[in-house]
Specification:
The complex is a heterodimer of chains A (124) and B (419). Chain A is α/β, with parallel strands linked by helices. In chain A, 45% of the residues lie in helices and 19% in strands. Chain A has a single domain, classed as Response regulator (Rossmann fold, 3-Layer(aba) Sandwich), CATH 3.40.50. In chain A, strands 2-1-3-4-5 form a 5-stranded parallel sheet, sandwiched between helices. With 419 residues, chain B is mainly α. The radius of gyration of chain B is 42 Å and the shape is rod-shaped. Classes of the chains: A alpha/beta (124), B mainly alpha (419). Chains A and B meet through α1, α4 and β5 of A and α3, α4 and α5 of B.
Amino acid sequence: MRFLVVDDSPTMRRIVINALKTFEYNDFLEAGDGDEALKQLEEHKVDFVITDWNMPKVTGLELTKAIRSNESLMHLPILMVTTRGLKSDIIEALKAKVNNYVVKPFTPQILKEKLDAILAALNR
Amino acid sequence: MQEKDINLLLQKAEELKALFVLGQRVIPFLEEIFIFIKEIQPLFDQINVSIQENLKKIPGAGEQLSKVTEANEMATNEIMDTVDGVIFKADIIEKNFLKINNEHDKSLTNAIKLLEIIYKGIEKNSNLQAILPQLASSINALKGSNNEELNNVLKNNKDVLNGIRNDASSIMISLQVQDITAQQLAAVNHMLFTIQDKLGGILKHFQNTDLTSIPGNDNPFNDTMNISMMHREIAFDPIAVDALAKDGNRQENVDDLINAHLSGNIDINATSEDESFDSNDIDAMFNGQIAETIESNAPISIPSITLTEEENEDDEIDIDALFSTAAQNNATTTNDNVNNITLDGDLDEPIDPNDLDALFASNNTDSDLDNSSNSDDNQSSDTEDIDKTAENDVLSNLDDVEDDSQFSQDDIDAMFGNL
């Protein structure tokens, strides 16, 4: 499974990738903001998107909306990983149709749990 | 009446006349001073208000920076504790390797002994039947050579290595503080930009007026002066560092809300200030943790930086309108007071005593003229009036701001009443 990890912080991208590696996922693409992510999605096939919210140029929320409005990408599973934890943020993310939501700081176990939940829901 | 008295009266009249003539000569200068004050007063008011508002932000910025330092300290200590644990586990593994080595040596010794027995027996061409007991003993020694202990040591090593992997994972988790604090610092940096922008605007206004150039200033302010630049563009959540508060419920609250949505218990599209949710649903979702969640995300001060970067522009527009309103109000008051002091007629003519009285009476009663005399008490009372006006306006503006961190539990219940 190929993951696209989107975060403006290189440190966070590395942390997410390291967490996924502990669960034996090995295929990753990276992007520093939503704009770069959309370019990656145009050029490569991706199976799962993990994105931050607060990013320059194109935010994670805008990226989600762009993916959902693109016919060829609209079914991509999207996991939002962000510091934003207000109720209004979560509702906004749900309206944009993210599949699940993780607040920072997170443990690898929580990341895996949300990942598995999304994959299980998709496989039903 | 004697001649002496009349002369005295005349002398006094002459003195009075001289005084009036002096007054007439002074009046143009006074008029210029009043005009100068009239022109400069709004600028000073703007400066006062702007500095006051910007000063209010600085303690908030200081507090944010303090939280960043605290978060970094906490994460560093966590990492150091974990590293201590890793070192301890490395010592255990080293000891286990020594045990394994010892067991290996014993096994090797027994095997060598066995082979030596066989070798000697064949060399001497002796009857090997006689040495069978010795052989059996050596073989038994090899077979039962503490395999159980060796297995335990190997298992212990495996467990310790898993522990080290978990420790590495913990360090990774702690290092997430870098992203969180970077966002917080970006928020403070943004505030510095805003303050620099406002104060820079005032300085440029000074430089562009005929009133004054700042004495001794060889480096006038210009747009190239950029005091705060981060190493890369960072989009930020202004309250990011609150995520590091020891509240283990944040993810649970998120999960509850998402699960409620997935199971159809809430309609997210109905979530607006005109819609209401069942307060029982909210309580069930969050188990009474809404208040704590909101309080932990509450803004630090007013005006605060709890608004996101996207909303900041709107907030700045409101503040600018507020300041220009406050400055205009005060300028209007100043204008009125100065305009009340009208000087009619030819200034070379003797001044009408009534006009003179009006002039000096206004000086004694008008607060703006008191300001011109730099009376500290009057200045501070005017500043307080501006502050109160500004504060009331800010508070009334904030009533319209959609920021759920400021809602009390009752506000939320009223807002999210019934599905």
